Amino acid sequence: MDRIRIHGGHPLSGSIKISGSKNSALPILAATLLTREPCIIHRVPDLSDTHYMLQILTHLGAQVERASGTVSVTAEKIESTAPYDVVRRMRASVCVLGPLLGRCKEATVSMPGGCVIGDRPIDLHLKGFEALGAAVRVESGNVKLFAPKLAGAVINLRGKFGPTVLGTDNVMMAAVLAEGTTVIEGAAQEPEVVDLANFLNKMGAKIEGAGTRRLIIEGVKELHGAEHDIIPDRIEAGTFLVAGAICGKGITIKRVEPEHVLAVTNALNNCGFRIESSANSISVSPNGDAKPLELITEPYPGFPTDMQAQMCALLSTTGGISVITENIFPQRYMHVAELKRMGANVDLEGPTAVIKGVDHLFGAPVMASDLRASAALVLAGLKADGITEVSRVYHIDRGYEHLDEKLSELGAHIERVKS
Ligand code: EPZ
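That is the input. Now the predicted structure with EPZ docked in place:
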């Protein structure tokens, strides 16, 4: 397994371009199953997660071609059973359930495993499918859906932790081919959900209210092919802004939607960093001593849970006492033990992390555990004195396109050590 070795203390400067969004590409690639006509998707990031999704589409019988960032998918004839050995590697595979149910009126997909950030239930997804008229069975590790026909319904998808992103995606993708009108109350408002709705509408769907808590979907008979550009990855953008904050002289990220990153740029502003935004670029630079923060993670447009670990790394090196409360995945603190190996001073109290900033972090061998925790360890290594080696970087490759190469372009002394 590859490792990433970072020689800390080298300030970053310059600019990099942000890739297409992983969390938009995955459901949009799944949505191509809803039509027998060709779909062309641009700016699909080169990640192991997108590769897994393309494998699943191929296993289901779709013709898939990829030329650098452009993917074309033609799902003329498809199976309704997704292969266990690919699905089990990526829990986001669950987002093929909705399009398979919409197109084939049946679907069999293995239950997504849990993961280190916590239990990953899909009860709200299944509640939505049942409301549309599907019979739901869970047997021998598979979710089996069957619906003689799908009929529009009023569905509340809000759970105890708030809206569900992939749940909203899944139910929306089944409802677009249902008879009649579906109303989804408590819908997720993430930009990735809006991007999916925009793509579905290009395919001939009739979806209103994307980006609000209430989606109204008028079912249609069938969808046609479409072409689409994936939105920029707001979490990659946030990760690089934190990199620029933790050890930058001033960096600029390009090809980004500043509005999608507002919660992160506001947090960095409140932390004392200078943020300058234009139509599709954002710059971050130091502006005197950084200050401690109180942060809570919330559904969009609140502060994203996917940026919590990265902010933990930054606030570990910021003077004073910061407090982070994780409201979406209360156990999402796998990065804390590893940051403490580097000298961070963090106390966990249930979903809350109390961070006492330290003057120095020290390089150390650390282990990646999940996508965003791994990124946080790389960011901490940029700041730490000495050498940090992050092992199991396959976690990083799942969701960041060439992270080490991009950081190297900004002046980081970072190398990938092939095992
Ligand atoms: C999406 O996961 C993202 N993944 C996650 O990003 C992100 O952290 C999460 O949304 C929250 O923003 C993709 O888009 C591929 P949820 P998703 O359903 O949709 C609970 C990353 O690092 N819940 O919005 O699976 C759930 O346990 C990944 O890129 C139920 O209770 O998350 C959680 O507490 C990690 N029942 C909360 O809702 C359900 O049926 C939000 O989960 C579904 C979810």
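Residues 22-229 form a domain with the UDP-n-acetylglucosamine1-carboxyvinyl-transferase; Chain fold (CATH 3.65.10.10).
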